[in-house]
Amino acid sequence: MTVRCTLGVDIGTSSSKGVLVDETGRIVAVATRAHEVSRPRTSWVEMDAHLWWDEFVSLARELPERAREQGIDPEISAVGVSGMGPCVLLADEHDEPVRPAILYGVDMRAGAQIARLTDELGADEIVRIGGSTLTSQAAGPKIAWIADEEPEVFERARRLFMPASWLVRRLTGAYVLDHQSASQCSPLYDVEAEAWHEPWWDRYASGIEPPRLAWAGEVAGAVTDAAAAAAGIPSGTPVITGTIDAWTEAVSVGAHEDGDLMLMYGTTMFLIATGTETLRTPSMWTTVGAFPGTRNLAGGLATSGALTAWLKGITDADYPALLAEAEVSGRGARGLVLLPYFAGERTPIQDPDARGVIAGLTLDHTRGDLYRAALEATALGVRHNVETMRAAGADIRRIVAVGGGTQGGLWLQIVSDATGLVQEVPRTTIGACYGAAFLAAAATADAPPRIADWNPVAHTVRPDPDAATYYDELFERYLRLYASTKELVHELAAEQRRALPQGAMA
Fold first, then answer.
1. SS3 string of 160-184?
2. Cβ atoms within 10 A of the Cβ of 500, count?
3. Alpha carbon 426 to chain centroid distance?
4. What is the model's pLDDT at position 501?
């Protein structure tokens, strides 16, 4: 049976994932390729961009075979792409990467460049033009870092890519970047003008051709003969521009309308509040949205699933056992408070030298208590971000949860209890690859689909009213613990940079 499908592929931090989706939104086939980042030095996080294309090709060839095993002959009508970001991949005039890609806010190497650009341009002017203060999330300082620290590499750079735009280039030959990704290249993009800010581009990205700008759901081009031969996708198939995975994930669950907040439970926790007004606050990220006329206030925890995976690794336990033990541990983890800053922290404290702290440990505590404390710590981190967003003027009326962490009911319930938020959980939470497939269908179908039809809400998670007072007190302790340990922890972070071997920590 021949079925028209769209192909969606997302290049993530720990894996690449692809789906084939039919015209009703049903997933026909899914496949994943696990990979690891490179951590060549403390606070550096990189990846070889050749891997992105190799995994795309592998997924594009495997997915139709998986569909055929079910008696379905997929006819790929369009291709959607997304990827982690903002990343900095510089390539030469032949589109050969000049160095590994520098990843998003988890890579914190550009502290000196953040300080220098802020001093040179002025913090207020950077916020006026680009929307946000410069932090480890911004791509601009990382470009400046390459120019400063690897000048011979920068001399060869002619083009700027992120994972989605790299796939588009390989598939279609188009050199294009979406507006949302571009707005995270601060200070090189003007948020209000929705255009590259030429004076600052010329100053800090001289010699690099600015990519053409388009919106995430716009068709960037068509699959070339060469790409068709490599990936097995018919030549001439439309390919959308795509965007950063968190924003594509918001699309996948319909959390991209005015008043929506998306919570993405992944390796890190990401939050995106959508509105129509440009909101600015020093501790969060102001960007344009995935669609014309929208603006976002975004935030992200540096760890989330990465923290639970770390605990799983050091305890040699599986997730079901840890979740069961955490449930037995109960609210408050029997008197533990944990700061989840094991890889520094992004928003709202913007502190790359923050570190994890576990307070209250005794010989009676178990791995289940530690796991419960980690889940509660990420929930309190979400609360800290949400309260900061609302203080900046974000009108959050609807919360949608997405990502791998939504598969565990306990984690969702703890987040709702700690924040007081009702969370909607859609039927499909597979992530950004599904959103990419939807954008491809919406851009090319004769009758564009609605994501509410493709992916309706399956259930809601409501906060336990009896938990409110307890988590109010725990949140206050959480904030006090950071404030009271910050100075010492910063000393330890400096010591770690001196003492630990290269690549020993993020």
1. EECHHHHHHHHHHCCCEEEHHHHCC
2. 12
3. 19
4. 56
Rounded CA gap, 506 and 410, in Å? Answer: 28
Q: How confident is the model at residue 8 (pLDDT cuts 50, 70, 90)?
A: very high
pLDDT(143) > 50: yes
Query: What CATH number does the domain located at 2-246 have?
Result: 3.30.420.40
Predicted TM-score (pTM) of the model is: 0.88
Angle at CA of residue 33, ends 32 and 34, nearest 5°: 115
Asked if the domains at 2-246 and 261-422+465-506 fall in one CATH topology, the answer is yes
Residues near 483 by beta carbon (within 8 Å), at least 6 away in sequence: none
The confidence band for 274, taking pLDDT boundaries of 50, 70 and 90, is: very high
Q: Residue 504 — pLDDT band, cuts 50, 70, 90?
A: very low
DSSP category for residue 356: -
Instruction: Please report which helix (H) or strand (E) contains residue 321, including its range.
Output: helix 319-329
494 exposed, middle or buried (CB, 10 Å; 0-12, 13-18, 19+)? exposed
Task: Please give the full DSSP string across 380-431, using - where no structure is assigned.
Answer: HHHHHHHHHHHHTT----EEEEESGGGG-HHHHHHHHHHH---EEEES----
Q: Does the domain at residues 261-422+465-506 carry the CATH identifier 3.90.1200.10? A: no
Cα separation, 421 vs 102, whole angstroms: 35
Residue 416 and residue 261: Cα distance in Å, rounded? 13
Beta carbons of 10 and 431 less than 8 angstroms apart? yes
Sign of CA pseudo-dihedral 248, 254, 257, 263: negative
Would you state the structure tokens that stand for residue 378, as one six-digit string? 């990420």
Higher pLDDT, 86 or 504: 86
Q: What is the pLDDT of residues 78-112, one digit of tens each?
A: 999 999 999 999 999 999 999 999 999 889 899 99
pLDDT for 417 equals 97
Q: Any idea where the domains of the chain sit in the sequence?
A: 2-246, 261-422+465-506
Is-contact 118 64, C-beta < 8 A? no
| C-alpha to C-alpha distance for 274 and 261, rounded to whole angstroms | 6
| Rounded mean pLDDT, 157-177 | 98
Q: For residue 168, what are its two tokens?
A: 């588009």
- The pLDDT assigned to 244 comes to 97
Q: Which residues make Cβ contacts (< 8 Å) with residue 9, sequence separation at least 6? A: 16, 17, 18, 56, 59, 60, 79, 80, 81, 82, 167, 433, 436
